[in-house]
Amino acid sequence: MSRKELLLKASTLKLITFDVDGVLTDGSLILGEKGDEYKIFNAHDGLGLVMLRKAGLNIAVISARSSPIVEERMSALGIHYVYQGQSNKLETLIELVEKLEIEKNEVAFVGDDLVDLKAMSMAGLAVTVPAAPNLVKEKADWVTDKQGGKGAVREVCELVLEAQGKLESAYQAYT
Question: What is the pLDDT of residue 36?
Fold first, then answer.
């Protein structure tokens, strides 16, 4: 897909949905001796999500895994649509689209593995990261330059803001 086509698709988005492991993180699962789970989030990605939210876009996180760390991080960023323990991400995404009363073509889904394919195929804009399996990359409209947990989410956020003519004003809030 050309950049022009990508920006056109992103220009109509109202909901940007992200997987967690492999997208908001690098996919590593760090487990402590007592079963504690740790995740590393990228601060640049976090600010990108805040810029999207402040620009009036809906943001959701849909993850097959459940972790209190994800709930805490998303709460700190002001993300209200957080769905964890979702083995059927497509069903969850459809319910959210109906709740928000938007069209499927107004949705982006950013995933990185086979469990994300059905949700990605429903979305108007399907995005993945370079570390995704080849099948996922083949089905995506766009593969980010940056890896999951290493700036890919910020890349998506800035592309959407640029496509909607909101990037410069998002930057101005910090200058």
Answer: 85
| Residue matched to tokens 């928000």 | 100
SS3 92: helix
- Homologous superfamily of the 3-167 domain (CATH): HAD superfamily/HAD-like (3.40.50.1000)
CB hemisphere CA count around 171 (13 angstroms): 8
What pLDDT is recorded for position 160? Answer: 98
What is the structure's pLDDT at 42?
96
Asked whether 107 and 15 are in contact (CB, 8 A), the reply is yes
Which stretches of the chain score pLDDT less than 50? none
Distance of CA 144 to the CA centre of its chain: 12
> pTM, whole model, 2 decimals?
0.95
Contact 29, 164 (CB under 8 A): no
In the chain the beta strands, taken as DSSP E runs, fall at: 15-18, 30-31, 37-38, 58-62, 81-83, 107-110, 125-128, 142-143
Rounded to 5°, angle at Cα 140 from 136 and 143: 95
